[in-house]
């Protein structure tokens, strides 16, 4: 699971959960996959991302030194930051780990890079 | 769009995962036919529900490589693995989620949604699988659609407003028995525009691709 995907995941579908975001991420094993850097795409994706979850993911991935806690203005002109965001969002691949609902503590395991987010009927 | 390689998937895989067939290829052809629209739309997040072998989302990912995040969901863990291996074999970047429809995704985030649902008309009992061995279950889920072949499709359509981004688009595969006209009317009431974008007759089936967009306000 790439950290760009992580940014789109919530546990809101669980019965009684109000926000379910951001999920608490744990990384036990990760890979780094080199992918082509497209600054325009990273920049265009930013309005769709939640910066607090971007920063949270950076902390868990031990890349917090690269990413400011608050979203800076004019990122488009900051090629270096775009490159660091590209690395964080598209190159770090979580192989083993888990996601945890911030409200209920329900754990979703990540195995072989695939999060299991199936809910039982009595949970929804 | 290139049809992705699937030689790595074996007949054993296809005991658990739907093998690409005419319906899959019609969906690919529809996306190919609408490529200009899609390129203008510039989707950021592309999602395929029930990706199975992964041919469709892999083809999309190749087309939008480095310009969109491509995500595949499936309730069948074996399908998730098959999708991941298909992406890998074709050097495509596809993310896989083992989940129901788009359940864990943030609201109104999906720009391009593709769904080849379990559309075969069956009894609801057949769909609910009480008497079927666990190993066979996943494959039945891939095609058995219950009454009118619509059980799963109807659940998705009810949630569509919460799934699609403001300029999102859905390509949905249907069978004539799924009553496409009824679905178009239903979507119109929900303030969507739905059109039969493509159709194809194959032995025993008349397939449609419905293209669904929001009515601009």
Automatic annotation (TrEMBL), chain A:
<dbReference type="InterPro" id="IPR005651">
    <property type="entry name" value="Trm112-like"/>
</dbReference>
<dbReference type="InterPro" id="IPR039127">
    <property type="entry name" value="Trm112"/>
</dbReference>
<keyword id="KW-0963">Cytoplasm</keyword>
<protein>
    <recommendedName>
        <fullName>Multifunctional methyltransferase subunit TRM112-like protein</fullName>
    </recommendedName>
</protein>
<keyword id="KW-0539">Nucleus</keyword>
<dbReference type="GO" id="GO:0005654">
    <property type="term" value="C:nucleoplasm"/>
</dbReference>
<comment type="similarity">
    <text>Belongs to the TRM112 family.</text>
</comment>
<dbReference type="Pfam" id="PF03966">
    <property type="entry name" value="Trm112p"/>
</dbReference>
<dbReference type="GO" id="GO:0046982">
    <property type="term" value="F:protein heterodimerization activity"/>
</dbReference>
<dbReference type="GO" id="GO:0048471">
    <property type="term" value="C:perinuclear region of cytoplasm"/>
</dbReference>
<dbReference type="GO" id="GO:0030488">
    <property type="term" value="P:tRNA methylation"/>
</dbReference>
<dbReference type="GO" id="GO:0070476">
    <property type="term" value="P:rRNA (guanine-N7)-methylation"/>
</dbReference>
UniProtKB/TrEMBL annotation, chain B:
<dbReference type="GO" id="GO:0032259">
    <property type="term" value="P:methylation"/>
</dbReference>
<feature type="domain" description="Methyltransferase small">
    <location>
        <begin position="36"/>
        <end position="129"/>
    </location>
</feature>
<comment type="subunit">
    <text>Heterodimer; heterodimerization with TRMT112 is required for S-adenosyl-L-methionine-binding.</text>
</comment>
<comment type="similarity">
    <text>Belongs to the eukaryotic/archaeal PrmC-related family.</text>
</comment>
<dbReference type="GO" id="GO:0042054">
    <property type="term" value="F:histone methyltransferase activity"/>
</dbReference>
<keyword id="KW-0539">Nucleus</keyword>
<protein>
    <recommendedName>
        <fullName>Methyltransferase HEMK2</fullName>
    </recommendedName>
</protein>
<dbReference type="GO" id="GO:0035657">
    <property type="term" value="C:eRF1 methyltransferase complex"/>
</dbReference>
<dbReference type="InterPro" id="IPR029063">
    <property type="entry name" value="SAM-dependent_MTases_sf"/>
</dbReference>
<dbReference type="GO" id="GO:0003676">
    <property type="term" value="F:nucleic acid binding"/>
</dbReference>
<keyword id="KW-0489">Methyltransferase</keyword>
<keyword id="KW-0949">S-adenosyl-L-methionine</keyword>
<dbReference type="GO" id="GO:0045905">
    <property type="term" value="P:positive regulation of translational termination"/>
</dbReference>
<comment type="function">
    <text>Methyltransferase that can methylate proteins and, to a lower extent, arsenic. Catalytic subunit of a heterodimer with TRMT112, which monomethylates 'Lys-12' of histone H4 (H4K12me1), a modification present at the promoters of numerous genes encoding cell cycle regulators. Catalytic subunit of a heterodimer with TRMT112, which catalyzes N5-methylation of Glu residue of proteins with a Gly-Gln-Xaa-Xaa-Xaa-Arg motif. Methylates ETF1 on 'Gln-185'; ETF1 needs to be complexed to ERF3 in its GTP-bound form to be efficiently methylated.</text>
</comment>
<dbReference type="GO" id="GO:0005634">
    <property type="term" value="C:nucleus"/>
</dbReference>
<dbReference type="InterPro" id="IPR007848">
    <property type="entry name" value="Small_mtfrase_dom"/>
</dbReference>
<keyword id="KW-0808">Transferase</keyword>
<dbReference type="InterPro" id="IPR004557">
    <property type="entry name" value="PrmC-related"/>
</dbReference>
<dbReference type="InterPro" id="IPR002052">
    <property type="entry name" value="DNA_methylase_N6_adenine_CS"/>
</dbReference>
<dbReference type="InterPro" id="IPR052190">
    <property type="entry name" value="Euk-Arch_PrmC-MTase"/>
</dbReference>
<dbReference type="Pfam" id="PF05175">
    <property type="entry name" value="MTS"/>
</dbReference>
<dbReference type="GO" id="GO:0036009">
    <property type="term" value="F:protein-glutamine N-methyltransferase activity"/>
</dbReference>
């Amino acid at each position: 699971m790439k950290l760009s995907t992580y940014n789109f995941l919530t546990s809101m579908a669980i019965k009684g959960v109000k926000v379910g975001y951001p999920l608490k991420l744990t990384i036990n094993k990760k890979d780094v996959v080199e992918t082509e850097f497209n600054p325009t795409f990273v920049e265009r994706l930013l309005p769709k991302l939640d910066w607090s979850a971007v920063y949270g993911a950076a902390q868990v991935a031990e890349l917090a030194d690269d990413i400011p806690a608050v979203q800076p203005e004019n990122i488009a002109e900051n090629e270096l930051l775009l490159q660091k965001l590209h690395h964080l969002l598209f190159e770090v691949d979580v192989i083993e780990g888990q996601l945890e609902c911030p409200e209920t503590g329900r754990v979703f395991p990540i195995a072989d890079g695939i999060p299991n987010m199936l809910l039982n009927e009595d949970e929804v | 769009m290139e049809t992705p390689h699937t030689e790595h998937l074996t007949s054993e895989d296809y005991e658990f995962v739907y093998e690409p067939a005419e319906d899959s290829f019609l969906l690919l052809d529809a996306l190919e036919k609408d490529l200009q629209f899609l390129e203008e739309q510039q989707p950021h997040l592309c999602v395929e529900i029930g990706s199975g072998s992964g041919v469709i989302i892999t083809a999309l990912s190749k087309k939008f490589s480095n310009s969109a995040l491509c995500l595949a969901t499936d309730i069948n863990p074996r399908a998730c693995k098959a999708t991941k291996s298909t992406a890998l074999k074709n050097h495509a970047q596809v993310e896989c989620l083992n989940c129901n429809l788009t359940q864990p995704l943030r609201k109104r985030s999906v720009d391009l949604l593709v769904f080849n649902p379990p559309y075969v008309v069956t009894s609801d009992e057949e769909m609910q699988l009480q008497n079927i061995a666990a190993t066979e279950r996943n494959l039945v889920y891939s095609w058995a659609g219950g009454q009118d072949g619509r059980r799963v499709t109807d659940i998705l359509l009810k949630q569509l407003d919460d799934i699609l981004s403001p300029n999102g688009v859905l390509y949905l595969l249907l069978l004539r028995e799924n009553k496409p006209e009824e679905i178009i009317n239903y979507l119109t009431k929900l303030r969507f525009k739905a059109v039969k974008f493509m159709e194809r007759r194959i032995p025993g089936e008349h397939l449609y691709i419905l293209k669904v967009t929001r009515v601009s306000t």
